[in-house]
Amino acid sequence: MSEDDEGNDKKTQGSNRKKLKLVTFTGAAGLLGLAVSFAIFAFNSHKQKSKKKCLPGCDSVCINLSAKEILDLADEIISKSTRVHDAVASVPLNKLSYENVVLPLAELEARLLPLIQCCVVPKMISPQDNVRKASAEAELKIDAHLLSCRKREDVYRVIRIYAAKGESIAPEAKCFLQYLVRDFEHNGLNLTTTKREEVGRLKDEIDELSLRYVQNLNEDSSCLFFTEAELAGLPVEFLQSLDKTQSKEFKLTLESSHVAAILELCKIAKTRKTVAMAYGKRCGDANIPVLQKLVQSRHRLARLLGYAHFADYALDHRMSKTSTTVIRFLEGISSSLTDLAIREFSILKDLKRKEEGELPFGVEDILYYIKRVEELQFDLDFGDIRQYFPVSLVLSGIFKICQDLFGIKIEEVTETDVWYYDVQAFAVFDSGSGKLLGYFYLDMFTREGKFSHSCVVSLQNNALFSNGACQIPVALLIAQFSKDGGGEALPLGFSEVVNLFHEFGHLVQHICNRASFARFSGLRVDPDFREIPSQLLENWCYESFTLKLISGYRQDITKPLVDEVCKTLKRWRYSFSALKSLQEILYCLFDQKIYSEDDVDFSQLIRSLHPKVMLGLPVVEGTNPASCFPRAVIGSEATCYSRLWSEVFAADIFASQFGDGHPNLYMGLQFRDKVLAQGGGKEAMELLTSFLGREPSTQAYIESRTKYGL
């Protein structure tokens, strides 16, 4: 054991906490001898050997396993999963039933999810390097196994024949059955052997091309050199962080943090344009051919699977459904914001004219002049505001808002094992009945080896079993807040406060999702809907009621932010929001069109779209987003619109149901029961329509920007 490991162990050993006295919810085996609880028994043997203290009633969730325990558990998961799939495949075709085909797979999925997470989540959070490596190894093994399960012809045959019988089963069970069939058929199991092999080949090719595209960007070492005069406006600290040549020029890489600093702060127009051109040309010769081939391969895959284009395949099970709907949505928002965007653009051009004369205004000037106008119009010092947001006060404020809004009660769970000394665990109860709804962990502070982004991870999803037993949800919120040299938490910047509200929206969604099937509970909902609860909760960050609740001058809660600062923050939120939205819409349209049309000329498309969306501004000379747009390659291909979609509908919900900015318990409970609790087994658009009493609208999104905009 290294010295680092020993130090981490000491911190972890001091993390035992007293358990709450809660009702224990235990699991059950599947029917007809298909012992889905195999994996639970295997896991419990690991837990007993290492004497881990898990959350009350959640013995399956134990994230601080050793490296050996992780690898052993991964083998057990694969072994027991294989046995259940073998059992389903062996059911005689004349004796197929819901109980011996669908139910075993549903309960297996519910039981395995927390065990799988015990294996794969440590790579994100463990303080021990050997544990992170074992976790990554286990993830590869488990992923390969799960993929092989979705390619089993014998299991697919049984499921397909049972589905064709058309037995009457509960709606959520029917939806789960449809998803099972889709999982197999998206791997080509319903095709001829030749076409199935082509599906596999195309998927491998898509993975290879996507990886090559991203690697090209990651390995790009392009840099620029500027004199100090050419970098006028950049902070001294930024300049000191740059390498210098013998001729005393500063070396600027094209990493996003450097580029953002130049485009926001540099006073020299020529420098901004030079950097914008270089950034937009990255990997052009290498990546444009890669993306062309990647788009073609995705179209071929989609057509083999029965879709006209890749966008149809990607959107088939989303709220938007079709590319036509997405493009109409994006163009509708763009059209509605055009007048406001023109007014915003006029302000920027006027200021540039005053400061730089008659130089033409380019896209590369937008960020700089937005920041200049905000400096002139808003009396906001975000460095000064930071001291009003100590972590403990912000957390207690968020807890209160969530409790008052959604009818929940949050209590800390002590004396439970955690993986690092400052990790906290909490139980969530229904405030009316006192019923335990679920748990969550908070891993709030940055440290070496920890995952570097904020997110919420499902550790265990809600599920109901055939004997009436319940599995309750457990989630993990990972944040990246800082401590000072003495180990004390630093106050949060306002953007960190907003981000924390956003992530708590995911936590509430995960805990309040009461779907009976793990496939549809937790965060396993329509991807177009998944961000709506988080975007909704963000709205409270800008309300005076909330800001006074969560702020206090250096822990002195008698001195919260004054009303004027609260009002200014709301105006700042919508500052130049129309122009910012148009920039996002531009890239969303580019993404949607390359995946919904054949043989798209990327250069011609961006030259056409850019002036149309961006008020006549041409694309920066020589640049093409096709060369450096990773979201359209991996992760959000054909779905870049989804973040804006969520924001628009969250604005509608907030304005129409929670407009005064105070937590409304009645409406919050309605949202919790009619929307969040229903889970992913029901159409998200139908849930929102039922809650609102009408279809969701873009009107509130447009009006909020018009009301508070410049």
Distance N terminus to C terminus? 60 Å
What is the spatial order of strands in the main beta sheet?
A: 4-5-6-10-7
Radius of gyration: 27 Å
What percent of residues are in strands? 5-15%
Structure in words:
The chain has 710 residues and is of the alpha+beta class. Among the domains are: 67-190, Endopeptidase. Chain P, domain 1 (Glutathione S-transferase Yfyf (Class Pi), Chain A, domain 2), CATH 1.20.1050.40; 221-281, no CATH class; 385-574 and 642-708, Orthogonal Bundle (Neurolysin, domain 3). Helices cover 55% and strands 7% of the residues. The protein has 29 helices and ten strands. It has helices at residues 3-13, 38-50, 67-89, 98-120, 122-125, 129-149, 153-165, 171-185, 193-218, 236-240, 256-265, 269-280, 284-304, 310-315, 323-356, 366-377, 382-385, 391-406, 494-512, 527-530, 532-538, 544-550, 563-573, 577-594, 602-613, 642-657, 665-674, 684-692, 699-708; strands at residues 223-226, 243-244, 250-253, 408-413, 424-430, 436-445, 455-460, 463-464, 470-471, 474-481. Strands 4-5-6-10-7 form a five-stranded mixed sheet, with helices on both faces. A three-stranded antiparallel sheet has the order 1-3-2, covered by helices on one side. A two-stranded antiparallel sheet has the order 8-9. A hairpin with a 5-residue loop joins strand 8 (463-464) and strand 9 (470-471). Helix 7 (153-165) runs antiparallel to helix 8 and helix 24 packs antiparallel against helix 25. The longest helix is centred in the middle third of the chain and has 34 residues, at 323-356. The radius of gyration is 27 Å and the shape is globular.
